[in-house]
Write a structure and sequence with these properties.
alpha+beta; 13-stranded antiparallel sheet
Length: 255
Amino acid sequence: MLKKTALVISLVCFSLSVKAVTVDELVKKNIQARGGLKNMLAIKSVKMTGKITSGPMEMPMTLYWSRPGKLRMEMSLQGQNIVQAFDGKIGWMIMPMMGSSEPQKMPKDELDEIKTQAEEMIEGPLVDYKKKGHQVELLGKEDMQGTETYKLRIKLKSGKERTYYLDVDSGIDLKTTEKIKRQGIEVVQHSYLGDYQKVGGVMVPHTIDTKGADGHGAQITIEKVEINPKLKADLYTLPKKQEVKKEKTEKKKTK
């Protein structure tokens, strides 16, 4: 009887500890931990350089972002240049490893993913989540490799779900889990964020480890972050075929 009573008391205490903090309080704490909304909104454009490592393969990477929701990522692999971009409406890519060096529009799955990335680049989904039409639920606490975290489930307006793990003490994002589609196949992806550094008044993770359910994944390492650089207006625009050919010719002349 005493054991059952103790169990009931412990469960009640756990329930009260979870309810002691609200979703909005956690969201506010997270925004403050990342530098505050004012500093986030002051960022109009970003340029990041670094590398993507997957097993023995390493790819130099450059990422460009501009408001409102424009994104471009360039990678290099075995002398081939890979581009993925979104201009706010159109998503396009250059994927020579897939047999095409000409720019082409993205399939729907890739388009949805890069559009979301572009929209969430600085603020993320938690900022003004109610206005955006998202729903956020506190699922309790969870230990993550020895660190206690708050577990938040975010149901995006699009219907997709994502789970955020926030450090109990600081409120910073430590991990996200979501289902994404790769070539029409839905997979679970875990992203571990680390090596936070303050840039432009905002905390930016400089390492992101992504892993699938099978344990395989990649690591993104950010080496340099430039805040509010001047970027070309047509950087995100789907280029015309003649422009691509002209660029290739100019590169050959410089060799």
